[in-house]
Predict the 3D structure of the following.
Amino acid sequence: MDQGPSRRRIRMLLIFVAIVVIAMVVQLIRVQFGPYAPAFAAIEEIVAEQVDKVEPTRGLIYDRDGRVLASNVPLYYLEVEVRQLTEVSKKQIAAVLSQILILPFDDLYGQLSYEWVDEGQLRIRLTREISGGNRWPITVDQTVADVLKGFLADPEAPDLSGMSLVPAPSRTYPAGSLAGHVIGFVNQKGKGYFGIEGYYDDWLVGRSITIERGYIPLEARLRPDPPAGVNLVLTIDLDIQQMVEDILEEAIEGDKAESGQVIVMDPRNGEILAMAIWPPLDPNNYEPWLPPEERLEEEVSEDEEEPVINPAVAGQYEPGSTFKVVTMAAALDAGVVTPDEEFIDTGHIEVGGHTIRNWDGSAWGPQTMLGCLEHSLNVCLAYVSSEKLGASLFYEYLRAFGIGKVTGIDLAGEVSGQLRTPRHPDWTESDLGTNSFGQGVSVTPIQLVSAVGAIANHGVMVQPHVVLEVVGPDGVYWPKTTVLGQPVSRETAETLTEMLSQSLSGETNFAHVVGYQLAGKTGTAQIPGEFGYDPRWTVASFVGWGPVREPEFLVFVRLDKPETSPWGSVVAAPVFREIVERLVIMLEIPPDAVYEGWNTGD
Amino acid sequence: MRHRFQAFKQAPWRVQVRLTSGSMLPLIALLIVGGMYLAVNARHARAGRQVLNLQGQQADLVRYNAELGATLAELTSPERMYQRALDLGFRPAYASEIEYILIEDYVEPPPFIAPRPPASANPGEGTLSPAYTETLGEWLLRWLGW
């Protein structure tokens, strides 16, 4: 039997197998130990295991009824893998982007044609020129991204080879400038500034994590989610906020005022229902409000004043006559005066060598303490602080009311105001007289709201706050009402409320709301400057609360430099009335007569 | 011994076949194991690709959802709703037009509770069937009951 062919076939098969095995071994040795071994090792390092940084979603912000105030939407950066570009795709990418985004073709083409590889850059992010020759990454929204994605997927469309869309979260504020100062904003780097965004930045941002994923072989493993930022529900009622902002804007325009603020608070628990600031801040266009160090030099002009972010918590001013509420509360609580106590007003009083006069310069003759408040007599209140209370007791009460201290409201940027006490080297005895009617002492609107809120809340002062609910991965947390103290007794607070209710009707009719008994006080403050008080301008304000039977709201109104009239009773009180007329409807507070009818069974 | 020598002389290919098959068998066994390993790895890689694709889809959906949420919030902002109400012929009520009715045992609606942050729905490491993650050795040990 001839076995020749069979043997040859077996031999050939063995030789073939041997060649294949030897080739594989040689290739393995070459990869592992050959001259290209470091290059292969580097590729393996890059590809075999990639480290990804996973950013959590920034927490959302809602109003108290669940309407979204701050949300996240995707923006896309345009990135290019330069090695994938062809001469055609360079031109077509530049042409498409210049058409859609209205950007100069030459600038885009220049970026695409630059020899990035020589500089070791294989992937670039396309940028656009902004003022002063600076460049900023180009971002496109979802609509433009969808168009570009369509081009990338369509072989008939312009050749965009090499370009990719890289999503990046961006903050959006659906209500626009509504409550903008309360919310604050987030810059392009994801950092929160001012308001809630600034104060709760660490909570909202969550925590990014890095994960390592093997790509050779591709790991079948779910990606762990990074700890997300918390969602916040605010005490703000967006309907009330809108109403208040509309009325404030009308007042600013009508009275030709420079700026203004309105705060609406529930004095029982310190919940801020609305905080309107003019001029408004649009968090979607936050660049003008960035701190100078964050802005480009050429955008900051030399004569430009730095804007005060949320003047309701950071804008100090001399409160004027609204401060008389605090002085009278102190005197009543200390028992040094009674509502009916008589004072003979001669039109002037000297305290510490400084002569104090009334707002109209006239003498009002015999007045009760009620009359002093009703006619807003500076002389009477200076008499109460200097002759009745004395410095020690007076400043002790001011401290108890939180004057000169931050309230601790959960909004970024709060300042403490300025209160000079006898321990201060610059304090003089005349301060005792002027401080009694709100001169020589500076407060922030929120401080005054907090202090006067104590009178409205039967003597108990609560901390104003803006966050109602914190919802984190572990559950829901409701911050409790923080009691800051009880500067005056319940009886004092109720007596003063009654006095201010009566005096209000005598002081100004502009704050009267039909059907509701309210209490309040006007304020007209001069503005201190480098060379004393400015004779041209005032700060007109009003603080009031109601209904007196059981206060549910406190409204503070401040208008800076009104042109039509300098008086708080003329320009600020009508704003208060207009707000309260809407507020009682929105808060479903029945008129006094209806309420009494329910209680008496009629 | 003599018979075997004689057999070799008569049919030497028998011994060669035996030798060849003897050396090929381990190679074939190795190839089979290698093939199985490759098949499992391929399945693993395919599953990994699917996971990546699904994660990409999930991210797209989350983005789309956020976009819709923002649009909805914009469309229902108080300013727009107020304008729509005015366009429909409504106007704000005056206090004198409102009648208050006392309802005994009225229960106020519960306060709004925000949804939990979406990313926290799946905290920590992901959970996948061990079928996708266990090694051949682990599978063998499990199969052998060790």
Observations:
- Chain B has a mean pLDDT of 82.
- The radius of gyration of chain B is 38 Å.
